[in-house]
Structures
1.
Amino acid sequence: VRTRSFVLLAATLAWPAACAPADLPPPELPVSARPEPQRPQFHFTPATGWMNDPNGLVWSRGEWHLFFQHNPYAPFWADIHWGHAVGTDLVHWTELPPALAPDPVLGMPFSGSAIVATGAAAASCGPLEPGADCLAALFTSHGGADASEKQSLATSADRGRTWTPYPGNPVMPSTGLANWRDPKVLRHGGRWVMALAAGPAIEFHASDDLVAWTKTGEFAPPEASAKTVWECPDLFPLAVAGGGPERLVLVASGGDTLPGTGVRYWTGGSDGSGFVPDGPARPVDGGEDFYAAQTWSDAPDGRRVLIAWMDAWRYAMASPEGEWRGAMTFPRELGLRDDGNGPRLVQAPVAAIEDLRAGPVARWQDRVVEPGTPLAAGSGRTMDARLVIEAGTWSRAGVSVRVGGGEETAIGFDAVTGTVFVDRSRSGDASFDGGFARRHDAPCAPAGHAWDLRVLVDHSSIEAFACGGAAVVTSRAYPDPSSEGVFVWAEGAPARVLSLEIDALATAWPVD
Ligand code: FRU
């Protein structure tokens, strides 16, 4: 790495950006109404205050609702509310006033889910505003008078703008379990089914009206130890590309109580009361900044779209952001693919990213990169880069972004370990956490003779999608704003880049 960075620096000096062979004229980007240097421009962040988990993701009548764990008063975790944003395309969001606030008796509204309530479950909404569905949220009430975790219901008859707590809350009183939280509700088998984290297990409950709940079963993942505390489970059906029986996908976050990064998934089936996995747990994302992932309920056209908190508890309250802290990942379209080893989750940025394209930064066909001689491929801080690299005898090959002044964030393939990685060991400010400056990997097998990579870069975030979306690595990074270079490199032997397309992306914030 040290050799390469020396060469990168030399290359930067030798090829001023305007003369670099692969550079196109830099696209003019509109100036964001939120220009703070570390604030992501096309990922959701709250205008001010703290944000952690996505909550209550639901689509209704053309609107995507994004609720989130939010402290509206300060950029650290405290006074938890449900923040709220809405949008019609999963990219441009309008933040609305918080939807749920702490309750003096029940406690703070912790994570949970929302659905379009129908049938008996819609009764608690009362009369609906014209053009509105009955939206119902199930969430954990944490703390309060009895310092416990219990589950509550709130409903909205006005497109999620105001919420009424169910007068009989909690609908699921405390059982005495200290960690019993984050209900995710789906319609399955003609009833409402809830996945609920219960320490080292995931419980399942069922209801007809969202008020009376009966426990039907539980799944105790063999990967968990007695110390594991699962959080934020999600459960949803998903079709396998090319046919085969639909599978249930169970996702849960296990934080620091699991080795590596903490969000896992299982595919499986239902035995009518619980969940029977097809095989072992697998990571959803190899990066460290990926937690509390949740999918949208009631999304149109059978879509399954996931978003996650793009931070890590270990350092989230110390990271160098601003009057706000916390970002969401870019929304991801989910699918299942079976290459002969059982169904695997595949992820891709939602297609609405196309609306942000602001002009080409680099376009290559068939170019060979020699070890020790990285090739410049434009510059920028918000971009969508797609590369296909031919399999060969190189040991590592990829692209470095945010290069400048001794900083670089390298994203690439390691043919020796069979992984795609994001290496933020020299990406910029890492002073706030002793374990931040390192590399994160996800297992990745090239399709045929080529490795495919797509990297979304957005000020302080990097998301790498590789191997047909079967491998994803999400990392925050805090480079100096002036570090904007992009270089393609190889180690061990020359690498042939079959194609490279880099586009600048425009801000999703209003423009000044
Ligand atoms: C996950 C989590 C949830 C909890 C919420 C509190 O990040 O710990 O289990 O509901 O955050 O903000």
2.
Amino acid sequence: MMWTMPQLKRTQAIKRIALLTSGGDAPGMNAAVRAVVRTALERDVEAFGVEKGYSGLVHGQMALMDRASVANILHRGGTVLKTDRSEEFKRPEVRKRIAEDLRRQDIGALVVIGGDGSLTGAHLLQTETGFPVIGLPGTIDNDIFGTDDSIGFDTAVNTALEAIDRIRDTATSHERVFLVEVMGRSTGFIAASVGIAGGAEIVLMPGRDLGFEEICHTLKESERRGKKSSLIVIAEGENPNLTNQLTRSLNEHGFQARAAILGHVQRGGSPTGHDRVLASMLGSAAVDYLLAGQSDLLVGVRGDEVIAAPLAQVIGKKKEQPREHIALARLLAT
Ligand code: F6P
């Protein structure tokens, strides 16, 4: 997939920018870092990489990056800048001090690559201090309002699918029911994609769970139609024990059930081509928005375009899971 890039005119004489990755790491963050640094250098702007997310800003840990410092990172998972979930940055007086520090170093803007919490921090920094920020959606959850896609989502779905295909083999051999839990916090974007692409018999989404009776009924129906093994994909949701509890209950009701909680394996690994292209486009566009004098924005994608949306209209909002995705996963399973 390629998106149309915005046509932006340079109006700002920013000399230096800083960038950081924050929150849960996501495959493709390195591709975004590389794109920000290389686009900045191409526009005669210096780029400073902040270590460990907002914690690095709090403790003044940043280093000037050159072309070579982002060589050979495009294909690597994780984030070379490291990441963190900073508690200190949640304090307004800390954000004020950071804006002053950045200005003192002649840094004119900050690019933040992360999830909803990280983007909220970026927005607060700008509204409270006037320091220009741009946010990029970097999370495997794809739960950021205002953008269709986020850096890392496609890779996480493919990683989960690889695991599921393997689990299918053993489920078929033993004629078992496998419950596979995927990440996604309180949203089910990973679960829905994995459910459809992995041919799950049942997909359990946060807040839209089927009752236990209905699950048993679906499994028995599936058996009646000749299926000897089944796969249930579960979105992790808010209940950390859901998958194990359900597995226990199914065993008590005569099924041979086993649980596989995929966990952080979904966050690692080399980013897919899709995520590399997405991250490269968003990283490059972020610099051009800043140089065009635009900030306090999320740079994301909608349809076939790279877009920018005010952070104020994005943060804290729930991105709804299209009902038809869940419906399709269930329809194809039967
Ligand atoms: O937001 C990304 C994510 O991987 C979620 O899917 C998951 O719930 C959470 O982070 C796990 O966070 P941590 O790595 O801090 O345990």
3.
Amino acid sequence: MAVRALWFERGTLHLIDQRLLPLRLKVLHLRRLGDVADAIRSMAVRGAPAIGVAAAYGMALGAAEGRWTPDRAAAALRGTRPTAVDLFVGIEAVRAEWAAGNDPVAAAEAYRELVVGECRRVGEVGAPLFRGGPKVLTHCNAGALATVEWGTALAPLRVAHERGSDLFVWVDETRPLLQGSRLTAWELGQERIRHAVIADNAAGHYMRAGEVDSVIVGADRIARNGDFANKIGTYEKAVVARENGIPFFVAAPWSTFDAERADGRAIPVEERSPGEVLRFGGVRAAPRSSTARNPAFDVTPARYVRAFVTPDGLVRPRDLPTRLRARASRRKRPASKIP
Ligand code: MRU
């Protein structure tokens, strides 16, 4: 794999500081739970599966510090970001093992293995959708940086490209923090996948012009009925794709599915600092007297989704409740711990 968002060695979590890419490739070395919480909150590490894995290691670091209980450590990390359910799943994976007297580092390693393996399978499952060199549009960054390795939306594109598909990717810049132009374009460049960055507002123009064959995005939380949260702007892209008869896919590991939420109305949407909207590249981009609103995510209704690309195959939204019930009856997840 060309890109790895984070790794754990000798009691230290190393992670790429995603705030600085693509201009600087800097690695942060974190040894305390509080440092990991800060990195998640400030988005040095971001993307739903990646913050789940970072938080899992944060729990392991907390255990080594000796001043946290499993429950207090979990509470500190849960307070960092509200929308991506993976965060809570990763924390719980380690909390339960630690509370049972098992090795928290081993639990965090096992959680990372699970997520990376599922993302690789998402790539295998989704790759056939992108045979024959299509033009694909994606929003935000759902690559290795967002998932530790492989990606969700980018994993099928990466595998299709490896298998010889000369595909082309339209990369939405993704205001206000530019995860598309800074991170997705950087990852595609590493893989030599053809792409062009477009202003978020240009996506509809290219869809209407017949320049987009399909859309694929990741997700931060997928409710039982298939409504899903993803980076702000995703909803608009889904609606315009439907208007133009373009298939819209959502790729995710199982940690992103939240069977406890009946539909999208139950998904908490993070609102971040107005400063992220009022400044651009550190420079004020609105009058001093202006205020701003800054929802980090929006919720797209399930009816816009052609299929979820999961580790175990394509799943239509109407089949999702049954699939999630079947999974829950196989492995009991402690729902009460997942906010
Ligand atoms: O605010 P971010 O950058 O953490 O938001 C990330 C996204 O919205 C991604 O699209 C999502 O996590 C899917 S990533 C595999």
4.
Amino acid sequence: VDVSFIPALRAIVGATHILEDADLRRAYETDWTRRYHGSTPFVVRPGNTDEVAAVVAACAGAGVSLVPQGGNTGLVGGGVPRAGEVVLSLTRLNTLSPVDAVGGEVTVGAGATLAQLQQHVRAAGWNFGVDLASRDSCTIGGMIATNAGGIRVIRYGAMRHQLVGIEAVLANGQVIRRLPGLRKDNTGYDLANLLAGSEGTLAVVTAARLRLIPQLPSRAVALLAVPHTAAALAVTASVRAGTTGLEAAELFFSEGVELVRRHAGLPAPPVGTSPAYLLLECAAPANAADELSSALSTIDLPTAFATEARQREGLWAYRERHTEAISAEGIPHKLDVALPLDRLAEFEGRVRQHLREAVPEARPILFGHVGDGNIHVNILGLDPDDDRATDAVLQLTAELGGSISAEHGIGVAKTRWLHLTRSPADIAAMAAIKSALDPRGILNPGVIFGMSALRE
Ligand code: MLT
Ligand code: ZN
């Protein structure tokens, strides 16, 4: 990188917001999984949208590539420098506008964390439709760029479904400002939705207008011991049909619970040990517990209920602490696939069998959002560059009509397998959009398409 334009950047953001020191850069250079890392000449931390635009324009002028970064909680290597790119950290853009109580909307800076947003809107009597375990660190901009999913997709959809408008900086430094809070706006292409899931390759998200949901004070959680995935799906289907407020349906297995218990020092689940577990949560203005227990009344499986916040969290811990427990054990291969619901049980059985036979060193830990057909296949026990298990799992996913990434994205981790579940026509259309919006390829090079695709 030609660093001669650093003085120009200093003039834009102030000297203290260019981090050149190796110690200061380190946290930005390695991702949360510790699997993806690189080095950056410096981290630049603009404080508002105009500064982001000026920084991007200066980098474009110098032909310098950028990696936009939020809370650095991504799981596919899409938010860290890989080949000497400058890291553009958005965490200082953390403004939160007053909640619009008539429309149920709020405007949020890209750098606000999910927990900050939740606290802000809850204080005004509202809630936000997306929730996930990394809420204290993940930022709204990163969540939009990756179209984050999480534990409430079954009811409220993913991040793209919360978007009413967006503000973003294009690769040439121009700013798109679409934050008017208009619920109806059919004036051409929906740029907010184009950027949702674009993984920092098309523009830098600087702010968003988000739809809020009512705060539902009555909540109930049920943890069930289920014999297998097919049973979890059957219970989920009947609870879905018998309730109006199902907000989460999470599946996990004995191997994950054992790991979580060891890592977090938790007792056995109150339903005893079981090959598989299903966690359900209902939320309603009132009587969520009645709704959930009556939907489960005909189901004869060991079940624990919780309505108080602390007890609900106690049941959730067995599911929510999977990610940290797995990472404490080693650097996992993290696969995040979606299957048609009627192939999910078959997938789970075949993945386990295939790994047992073909990659016996692999130690799979499965869990996921069963209502969305989304299974996280985490594999411990393999070297980071040993792709045998990844290859087999993603091939099987494609064979069964699934997606190789349900919610984490492609990043740099999955580029080689993108063609499995996106057609040549799909990829050509995406590449055309990429080259139209970022003709010099300075935004997050290598992400989604891979490095070789860009060099061709
Ligand atoms: C989750 O569902 O917990 C997240 O997708 C994180 C993960 O897969 O580890
Ligand atoms: Zn997930």
